[in-house]
Amino acid sequence: MKIIGLPALVGSYDNYIWLLVKQEMVWVIDPGQAQPVLNYLASHSLNLAGILITHYHHDHVDGIAELKKQFPAARVYGPQKTPNNLIEQRLVDGDEVSLFDDYHLKVIETPGHTYDHIAYYNQQDLFCGDTLFGAGCGRQFDGGYDAFAKSLLKLRALPDGLNFYSAHEYTLSNLKFAQFADPSNVDLQNRIATTHIEYPQPLVAPQSTLKLEKATNPFLRFDQLPIQETLLARGAQNTPESLFKTLRDWKDHIDQKGYPAK
Ligand SMILES: [Zn+2]
């Protein structure tokens, strides 16, 4: 099996649509656009087996209708709570989806970015949608900060060795904030020095590993020193919800206003 990240909505949302390819069959995760997927399938003579959805946002679901039109036999799986009637098979925490004979993904509910968000994982791979990004995480829309913090800690409890695939390529800008929030982190310095992003080239390797994210992503480290101390000094209370919200608000503020002058 091969896993390929197809760039989509380049320049606006900078998504990856992940394709899982075995022989002539393909599963896609979060097709926010149909055309990049259709082009890839046509040029490689592939067939669409099914679609997995992580949450309701349009940049993750807008390609479903066209893909279903071209491949009516493809099955569409998504969260129980997602308000989208193109989803045929509804998933809750602990469910398993069999993509190929020897490749299955488990569902883990990760509300926070949105109230309906789920991620998919097995012993090799983690597809975390907009819950986590390389060196960052999604914004809190309607899932709540407390739920989001708990979801991040749930993902942090998964094995280090997992290959990491998120739904967007925001790593470089996330690394700038990570460096600002966690300036003494040596693993983070090494990551910044060795990261080369080729987006919008298709990606034929994982974006990252969960081990690297645990070591360098501030949104998996908000309750650990030294970030915890920084957040307490910025007014956070010592709870996962408050620490996470203080960190997320800090990044949202910088995203809007830019970094403060030194
Ligand atoms: Zn989203």
UniProtKB/TrEMBL annotation:
Residues 14-168 form the Metallo-beta-lactamase domain. Binds 2 Zn(2+) ions per subunit. Pathway: Secondary metabolite metabolism; methylglyoxal degradation; (R)-lactate from methylglyoxal: step 2/2. Gene3D superfamilies: Ribonuclease Z/Hydroxyacylglutathione hydrolase-like (3.60.15.10). SUPFAM superfamilies: Metallo-hydrolase/oxidoreductase. The keyword Hydrolase applies. Zn(2+) 1 binds at residues 55, 57, 113, 130. Its EC number is 3.1.2.6. GO terms for molecular function: hydroxyacylglutathione hydrolase activity; metal ion binding. Zn(2+) 2 binds at residues 59-60, 130, 168. Keywords: Hydrolase, Metal-binding, Zinc. Thiolesterase that catalyzes the hydrolysis of S-D-lactoyl-glutathione to form glutathione and D-lactic acid. Monomer. HAMAP family: Glyoxalase_2 (MF_01374). This is Hydroxyacylglutathione hydrolase. It comes from Thiosulfativibrio zosterae.
